[in-house]
Amino acid sequence: MTENFTFDQLPRAVAILTKEVSELKQLLQQKREQQATPLEEQLLTVQEAADFLNLSVPTIYGKVSRGELPVMKRGKKLHFSSIDLWQYVKEGRIQTNAEFEAKAETSLATKRKGAR
Predict the structure, then answer these.
(1) DSSP 8-state assignment for residue 76
(2) Tens place of pLDDT for every residue, the chain, 116 residues?
(3) Within a 13 Å sphere around the CA of 28, how many CA atoms are in the beta-carbon half?
(4) From CA 60, how far away is CA 110, in angstroms rounded?
(5) Handedness of CA 96, 101, 102, 107 (dihedral sign)
(6) Has this prediction a pTM greater than 0.70?
């Protein structure tokens, strides 16, 4: 979408672009604030936990019995904290090569200092 502007049209085009960039900046800032807002803790049922993790209910029960999922039990009911489940998901994050190398370098540097 390239248009050829005349010299007289440039001020209006720049004004439009400035306005659009400002709106984009505002949207990005709003998105960043939404992400910075901590997840509100909710107690979830087994079905809600399954939906949250995108797993089946039997898989949830299996993970609970193997001690893989953080769970609270009152009587015969299982309850899951949304924050604990979010942390469980984040712990499964795979490190990038750069993160892995930085961690290895830090570990080696610490060991070298201790050997002296």
Answers:
(1) T
(2) 567 888 888 899 899 999 999 999 999 988 887 765 556 888 999 999 999 999 999 999 999 999 999 999 999 999 999 999 998 988 887 778 888 888 888 888 887 776 65
(3) 6
(4) 40
(5) positive
(6) no
Pair 47, 57: CB distance under 8 Å: yes
Q: How far is CA 25 from CA 15, 16, 37, 95, in A?
A: 15, 14, 19, 30
**Residue 40, both tokens:** 């509100």
DSSP state letter for 7: G
Tokens 């899951």 correspond to 80
Q: What is the DSSP letter of 38?
A: P
Spatial separation of the C-alpha atoms in residues 45 and 77, rounded to whole Å: 8
**Tokens, residue 87:** 């942390």
CA-wise closest residue to 44 among 65, 72, 67, 64: 72
